[in-house]
Every structure is written in C-alpha cells, then in structure tokens.
Amino acid sequence: MQPLLVLQHIGCEPPAAYEDELIDRGLSLERVQLDEGEPLPDWRRYSGIIAMGGPMGTYEADLHPWLAAEMRLIAEAVRAGKPFWGVCLGAQLLAAGLGASVHPGPQPEVGVLPVELTPAAANDPVFSAAPSSFPAFHWHGDTYALPEGAVHLARSALYEQQAFVFRNAYALQFHLEVTSEMVAEWGRVSAYAASLERLPGEDPLADLVEQATAVESSAIPLARELFASWLLDIVGVPAATSHS
User: What is the pTM of this model?
Assistant: First the structure.
C-alpha cells in the first residue's frame, strides 16, 4: 500500500492513538509539519489523508499562508474520492474546503463532554461501531456549518456539528485520541493557554488533565476502533495486515 499522509499543524497535536493503530497494522505514514514550513506533497501518492488539530482558525490565512493551499488540497483530494480523516482543525478545514462556513462558536467547548450520535450514524460504516453517546475531550472555540452533500453524524449540547461524512471523508470535531500527557502539554502552549482563563476553578489545566485521565481507558480504544473501521472499510487496508 501507499503510505498515509499526515497533515500536522503544531508539534503537540500528532495523530496519537490513530498513529498507534497505523503502527500496529504495519502501515507507513508521511508527516508534513505545515506550521514549520514543510511543503505540501501531491496527494495522489497516498492511500489517504489524516489532518490533525491546531490553535489556528481556517480563516487565518493572513497569519498562516499555508492554510489556503492546504484547504485546496483537501477539497481536491476529497472530491476525487480520496479517504480523509480530519480531527478538530482538520474537520474545520474539510468543511471550509467543501464551501461551508467556519466561524467562532457561542463559547469555547473545553473539557470532557458527551457526544451524541445522530440516527444517520447507525448506518455509517465507521460510526455504527460507536455507542449512541460517549464522553470525548474537547478544546475548541470554532464551529462549522454542515457542507452541502455531507451527512451529519454527531452533536453535543453546545455544538450541533461534532462529526460528518462526505463521500470517503470523515470529520471529527472532538478528540478521542489524546492522552492526559498531551492535554498537559497543550496547556503549556500560549495559544491554548488563553482559553484556560475562561474556565472555573483555581487550576483549570489540572482539572482538564484529570478529566482526560478519567476517560482515557474508554476514549482511546474507541478512537482506535473507529479509525480501524475507516482503514478497513474506507481506505481498503487488508484485514490480514493487522498485527493486533
């Protein structure tokens, strides 16, 4: 198989549990660190694309000029049928690339909060494996409109758009893949730390780390289960390649 392309926007937001699933299946990936100026490759060389999160917004191309080129790549690849897995900013980039609006939400959604699946998720080849409701870690302030032709898969109490599918492309606003160590690292990055000031409590970061620790045992296996379904049913990875 061709490798999978990972589009990473900051060093502290790698694919984490999704990358672990790739490694355990003996699959290769090629990582592009866009925030460090690495160039975008030809998406046709890859079996699929994974786009992770970051502190920037899709509408901040004046601050991050590579965002416009990345959105064009994602839109072109996805409309051609290339499998795509986008998380947080990666989900917003997919929505924007497909012509939907991305904008600040009513308030930041930060911490472990429940995600509810829509009825359409029950018939989806990836999300049908998930329970109808599950806790997930969130750290975002932007949201998006559902792109034309996409199927709405999940919502939360604060944000109607938490996941969708468009052809072979999946968008997840929430984080199932993160560890508590990653959450602690995010809190030490200035672009993330600003949102902590709005949270209650004497030590909001410690509270977030505690929340992430409490759900790791359920969230990370679910992350790998959903991602494995995407690899098998959407990317077309042969089941025999599994090392698990």
Answer: 0.96
